[in-house]
Amino acid sequence: MKSEPKKVVKNTGLSFSFPMNVLKPLMDYLKGEEKRLVKAKSSLKKEDPFKGKNREEDNSIDADVAEQVDHDRVFASRVELIKSLINIRKTLTRIKIGSYGICEKCGVMIDTDRLAIKPTAEYCFACENEVEARKKR
Ligand SMILES: [Zn+2]
Fold first, then answer.
1. Of 16, 43, 105, 120, which cross-links 127 as Cys (Cβ 3.0–4.6 Å)?
2. From the CA of 132, how far away is ligand 1's center (Å)?
3. Number of structural domains, the chain?
4. What is the mean pLDDT of residues 62-80?
């Protein structure tokens, strides 16, 4: 008797969807996070010395360097914020269309432990590793 190859479960639509009692609190959480990030993003804008209205008249090199460093720091946090916002919105969309928790790459169910830690995970652990490894190259 030959052994059956392990079946790869493909995304077949609704068969995988999480029950609403799991999704509802998750959606509430994500919406809360979305609000928080939008707020943080707009307050970061105010913090950016390049955009501040009361930029000091002090044009010494030291002050300019300090402003540049501040600007870079603010810019980096804004990039992170925008990335998180995109992830949250994508996740909310996937909940709505019923593909939440399914790996975008290979279509298998993402481990629920992994989703508990990172609810916005798009890929299963194996695919995430692959994507990360590709980025580093
Ligand atoms: Zn995968």
1. 105
2. 13
3. 2
4. 88
